[in-house]
Amino acid sequence: MSPDEIKALVRSIPDFPKPGIVFRDVTTLISHGEGFAASVEWLAARVMAHRSDVIVGIEARGFIFGAAVAASLRLPFVPVRKPGKLPVPSLAIDYALEYGTDTLEIDPGAIARGQRVVLIDDLLATGGTAEAAMRLIRQCGGSVEQALFVIDLPDLGGSRRLQDNGVDCEALLAFEGH
């Protein structure tokens, strides 16, 4: 499938979760077998080009894409979770969202010092969530130089924010505006 065909599978919902936000809903893409497979294949090809050791996915939709890529490449998958979801003592970081604040956590033993990590999520907006995940990975000793997304909202500056932290960003799709 072409990127334009995949893009047509993403549902846009205006004024969610609050007025002025256009939510890009990937559940319609995930529910389309061929579109989902094509998205995972695109992500996997980029992971292979960087010779990564570990895939990290951000809760919740980053789990879907990241775990699928990890399984297809036979690489370990590490989840970055919302607070209170990990059964072991975790590293945590607070961060700002486009429409609020949140906390992310990671199992500090899930990534070995020096492992090359690719960060995967469904959507890049302001980059706050991805930057927080990047910081957690680095606190664990991992090296994260690549972040992959299904969707980028370039007007919100997330890719620049990550690039300023030494992380190369790529997205399969871009939606202008927010």
Q: What would you note in describing this structure?
A:
This protein has 178 residues and is an alpha/beta fold. The chain has one domain: Rossmann fold. It is 32% helix and 32% strand. The protein is built from six helices and nine strands, in the order αββααβαββββαβαβ. It has helices at residues 3-7, 27-30, 33-49, 61-73, 128-139, 158-163, and strands at residues 11-14, 22-25, 54-58, 77-80, 91-97, 100-106, 116-124, 143-152, 168-174. Helix 3 packs across helix 4 (61-73). The chain is globular.
Brief synopsis:
This protein has 178 residues and is α/β, with parallel strands linked by helices. Helix content is 32%, strand content 32%.
Number of DSSP helices?
6
What percent of residues are in strands? 25-35%
Residue runs with pLDDT of under 50 for 5 or more positions: none
**Secondary-structure element pattern, one letter each:** HEEHHEHEEEEHEHE
Average predicted confidence as pLDDT: 95
- Residue share in helices? 25-40%
According to DSSP, the number of beta strands is: 9
Give the N-to-C terminal Cα separation. 25 Å
Secondary-structure arrangement, i.e. CATH architecture? 3-Layer(aba) Sandwich
What CATH calls the topology is Rossmann fold
Helical/strand content category: alpha/beta
Number of domains: 1
The major pleated sheet works out as: 5 strands, parallel
Shape: globular
Order of neighbouring strands in the sheet with most strands: 4-3-7-8-9
Q: Class in CATH?
A: Alpha Beta
Radius of gyration: 15 Å
